Amino acid sequence: xxxxxxxxxxxxxxxxxxxxLLCMGLLPVLSFYIEKLEEDGRAEIVEYxxxxxxxxxxxxxxxxxxxxxxxxxxxxxxxxxxxxSNDSMSxxxxxxxxxxxxxxxxxxxxxxxxxxxxxxxxxVQEDFNRFMALDRKIIALYRAPDAASQxxxxxxxxxxxxxxxxxxxxxxxxxxxSITLDLMKKxxxxxxYGIVARWMMLVMWIIASAMGFxxxxxxxxxxSQMRSLMQKLESLAGTDELTQLPNRxxxxxxxxxxxxxxxRYRQPLAIALFDLDHFKQFNDxxxxxxxxxxxxxxxxxxxxxxxxxxxxxxxxxxxxxLALMDCDLPQAxxxxxxxxxxxxxxxxxxxxxxxxxxxxxxxxxLARADKALYLAxxxxxxxxxxxxxxxxxxxxx
Length: 397
Prior knowledge:
This protein has eleven helices and five strands, in the order H-H-H-H-H-H-H-E-H-H-E-E-H-E-H-E. By secondary structure, it is of the alpha+beta class. A five-stranded mixed β-sheet has the order 2-3-1-4-5, with helices on both faces. Residues 267-389 form the GGDEF domain.
């Protein structure tokens, strides 16, 4: 269930939590002294304890919100697919934390606060509103199909969003400290030293409970993030680092599922090989960084024009492979012509396309597509050449 690192972290968390849990066990034993408190000042102190609890909740909500925001914000900066999806783990937990933060701010606002504390609370609310508005803008930019918008989203995450949230965290912490100090003053103003001591024990119990709760939450969040990170690392292992397209390993896995679907539903499946024309000459003329940029931009443009059911992967160098589900050969040629229009820097693709023959090994289909690609290159490039599959029972030449 846990690996060695997880068990080590869990053991450390238990060692830290043990003294807290001991205090939580001992303090309720002393709580019966609260019954002997004098009535004078009791209601006011209870009210301030509730305010302190609400302020601590806002502070802990800010820490929780920051943790989940960091998770999906890092994915946005790295342009990881699905980072802005509301049902992704970090994003959905962030939205849940934002709801909790807004709810607890409302609870604190309804309580009796000093003028300076209410001013601090208003500042936190205004910053939070600006933060959420900026977050919606970042998500909208990141979901845009163009790289410029996604880069702008990354810059907003790394600059303005971090700045706003740091101010929220500082203001929430200052507010919690101010209210806690007021609580201490009210307790100190009680009629007797015994009452002060007993209420301090109650405050300690509240703080110990909150620390224990926060420790468990942070441990749970850490374990969840570690598992999420492992899943993302596994996903990255199947992604081409330069273009963010599926790599050969992912192609081999996903194409088998597409073949099974095509076989089951008797659907045609077109396979095409793409080769960027004169790419070596482009690299020699403009340099490898520009060549990398061209590959990224061309990949992103073609991917943005594909259907969700299609599979586009990088085979290596300037060669790409495309699988078009439920698409016969004439339709495939038309689709591919539309995909390769208006590429960056007036670059062109040569494409060879064929149909998968039922029960044929995919390597044979790829070899036939490669033969069509060879014909496209020898015919002057910048074109799509199709080769139909052989009739059943006839071997290919």
